[in-house]
Amino acid sequence: MTPLIAPQDIPYLPRGVRLSDDRVRGIRVLQAPERAMQLDSVGDAILSEVDGARSMSAITAVLAARYNAPEDQIAGDVRDFLTGLIERRMVFLRDAA
């Protein structure tokens, strides 16, 4: 089975979806029309790197360096997390080409 996200794919937040701070609760939230998702520190770290300009491999490299972790482990974690958001239509992908 082919993975849903390839290393050269560029994830981005579609129109109407954004990261925000819930100052009352002191948490980060991914907001979309008529829904919201509370983020833990891992989800926040991943989505903070999703800028619509960098590929999955670039995002993985940044996070692996920041957390001093193996790139293949980070790549799997990022891919799994973003796949769930893609299925919920809260993250989209585009080709780097």
Please characterize this protein's 3D structure.
With 97 residues, the chain is an alpha+beta fold. It has one domain: Arc Repressor Mutant, subunit A (Orthogonal Bundle), CATH 1.10.10.1150. The protein is 39% helix and 23% strand. The chain has 3 helices and 5 strands; from the N terminus they run E-E-E-E-H-H-H-E. It has helices at 41-49, 56-67, 71-87; strands at residues 10-12, 18-22, 27-32, 35-39, 92-94. The strands form 2 sheets. A 3-stranded antiparallel β-sheet has the order 2-3-4. A two-stranded antiparallel sheet has the order 1-5. Helix 2 (56-67) crosses helix 3 (71-87). The longest helix is centred in the last third of the chain and has 17 residues, at 71-87. It is globular and about 35 Å long. The chain starts with 9 loop residues before the first strand and ends with a strand.
Can I get a quick summary?
The protein has 97 residues and is of the alpha+beta class. It has helices at 41-49, 56-67, 71-87; strands at residues 10-12, 18-22, 27-32, 35-39, 92-94. The strands form 2 sheets. Strands 2-3-4 form a 3-stranded antiparallel beta sheet.
Features:
97 residues; alpha+beta; Arc Repressor Mutant, subunit A; three-stranded antiparallel sheet; two-stranded antiparallel sheet; 5 strands; globular
Q: Helical region count?
A: 3
Architecture in CATH?
Answer: Orthogonal Bundle
The portion of residues assigned to helices is 25-40%
Strand order of the largest sheet: 2-3-4
CATH topology: Arc Repressor Mutant, subunit A
What is the approximate shape? globular
Superfamily (CATH H level) name? Coenzyme PQQ synthesis protein D (PqqD)
What is the CA-based Rg, rounded? 13 Å
How many runs of DSSP E, i.e. beta strands? 5
Average pLDDT = 92
* Terminal-residue CA separation: 23 Å
Series of H and E elements = EEEEHHHE
CATH class categorisation: Mainly Alpha
As for the number of domains, it is: 1
Strand content: 15-25%
Instruction: Let me know the largest β-sheet.
Output: 3 strands, antiparallel
The parts where pLDDT drops under 50 for at least 5 residues are none
Structural class: alpha+beta
